[in-house]
TrEMBL record:
Keyword Repressor: no
Pfam families: Tyrosinase
Xref: InterPro entries: Di-copper_centre_dom_sf, Tyrosinase/Hemocyanin, Tyrosinase_Cu-bd
Listed name of the protein: Di-copper centre-containing protein
Molecular function GO labels: metal ion binding; oxidoreductase activity
Source organism: Pleomassaria siparia CBS 279.74
Signal peptide segment: none
Residue ranges of every copy of the Tyrosinase copper-binding domain listed in the record: 223-234
């Protein structure tokens, strides 16, 4: 088993001045450019953690996610892990790259069914647009020349950032970003019903709607859009927690081993937000567009869940970002404005 970083986390004794995370759509051009150049700075900052493939601080987060892939998706720790992962990204932007603002998020409901026209894809004040050519490499924007070391899948192989917004399966997935699908999850009472609903719905919409590297479960943090997508999912979780904080700041459950859960009830026919009809397979042979399983041997040791007495996720479950920040436990990230974390959403 991989050695985990067990240094004690640093707690805020109080959270009075919160970082207020805002939607990308609401930022000024100057604020957008400050964020994009901070991300470029992370990409240009040499790696420090001794991970096998990463060259930059940006790559280190990508590789850490890749090494954790089987303990952070389709499991109870899915949302807590990604909350901490985005916090690590925000912290690195601020401490390594002098970024002074909060982490932005992508309000995906604003772009539902029409990701291709999103302001996030601006070549000048955004993340660049669709992939082009046989390789689907992005061709404009600040990240067009970045070379990712991790991926596709669990391979280590230098490549460009890819996107496939025009693919029919991506167009379909972007429809699932509609607010009605989020609201259907908001109506779930218990954690065990809520998180699979979000993972299946809004989570799949953002990854699938962009396609390419974003649809790569292992290597997706190689596209900087990943961070705005998961900040949005974190906001959705926080909105739900805020509806019943007495229960939802402490309730956690779920398997530590990835489980293929069934389509959540709100998405079934007759549910609160049933899925739109699937595309015609003749016109959309790539649907649902999941990448093939990566061949070959893992370039790093497989990782197991740490911290729980059994196979069920508890508040003691350990979240690691491989030393980018200290390891913490699920209990440390349940409240975004108390203890370890100190931010909010507007
Ligand atoms: Cu992930």
């Amino acid at each position: 088993m991989a050695v985990l970083v067990q240094a004690a986390p640093v707690y805020n004794t109080s959270c009075t001045v919160k970082l207020e995370r805002r939607a990308w759509h609401t930022l000024t051009d100057a604020e957008k450019l400050a964020y994009l150049s901070a991300e470029q700075c992370l990409m240009a900052s040499p790696a420090t953690l001794g991970l096998s493939a990463a060259r930059s601080r940006f790559d280190e987060l990508q590789q850490s996610h890749a090494m954790s892939v089987d303990v952070v998706h389709n499991v109870g720790a899915f949302l807590p892990y990604h909350r901490y992962f985005i916090h690590a990204h925000e912290t690195l932007l601020r401490t390594v790259c002098n970024y002074t603002s909060p982490h932005p998020y992508w309000d995906e409901a604003m772009d539902a069914s029409n990701f291709v026209s999103s302001v996030l894809l601006s070549p000048t004040t955004g993340f660049g647009g669709d992939g082009v050519g046989n390789e689907s490499c992005i061709a404009d924007g600040p990240f067009k020349d970045y070379v990712n070391p991790v991926g596709p899948g669990s391979r280590v192989n230098d490549h460009c950032i890819t996107r496939k917004l025009g693919a029919c399966e991506s167009v379909y997935a972007s429809r699932l970003a509609g607010r009605e699908f989020v609201d259907a999850c908001m109506g779930r009472e218990r954690w065990g019903e809520f998180w699979p609903c979000v993972e299946f719905g809004a989570h799949s919409a953002g990854h699938g709607g962009i396609g390419g590297e974003m649809l790569d479960l292992v290597a997706s943090p190689g596209d900087p859009l990943f961070y705005l997508h998961h900040a949005y999912l974190d906001k959705v979780w926080w909105e739900w927690q805020s509806l019943d904080p007495g229960t939802r700041l402490t309730e956690i459950s779920g398997s530590n081993v990835p489980q293929a859960f069934p389509v959540p009830e709100p998405f079934l026919p007759g549910g609160a937000a049933p899925l739109p009809p699937f595309p015609d397979p003749d016109e959309c042979p790539g649907f649902p567009g999941s990448p093939p399983a990566p061949p070959g041997v893992l370039p790093w040791e497989a990782r197991g869940a740490v911290g729980d007495a059994g196979n069920v996720t508890t508040m003691d479950h350990v979240l690691t970002v491989d030393g980018a920040l200290p390891d913490v436990r699920v209990r440390d990230v349940m409240d975004i404005a108390g203890g370890l974390l100190c931010y909010g959403y507007v």
